[in-house]
Description:
This protein is an alpha+beta fold. The chain has a single domain (2-7, 18-114), classed as Alpha/Beta hydrolase fold, catalytic domain (Rossmann fold). It contains four helices and six strands; from the N terminus they run βββββααβαα. Strands 3-4-6-5 form a four-stranded mixed sheet. The radius of gyration is 16 Å and the shape is globular.
Amino acid sequence: MEHIYDGAVIGPDTPISPFIQAAQNVPRRQFREVTLNSKYMDEERKLLVYIPTAYNNTEAHNLIVQLDGQNYSRNPDYGKVWQGWTPTPTILDNVIYAGEVFPTVAVMVLNQGRRSEDMPSEKFTDFIA
């Protein structure tokens, strides 16, 4: 086993999922940057919202709320796999297109450099809810 990055270990025979690479025939999602003024946090918070190409506002969709959004919203060409980032948008594009999951909206919450303060905070919990 090889320690790649904090929290990531890749075993010697571990295959890398094909879903982490962008496929040419797979439609790309929309990404929206949103800044909102949080009354719970008493500050502006930045979010990235993944909207699948199959989005239909008359149908229910899965929802992912992803903390540390700056690490999970990268493209697959950002760097070596598992060095503290995950190409969640590309993975969602691929698994939705393959029919592995229903269309999913993902809200990626950026930590804004205060993760150690936010995580145990009741204000942050209320903000996420």
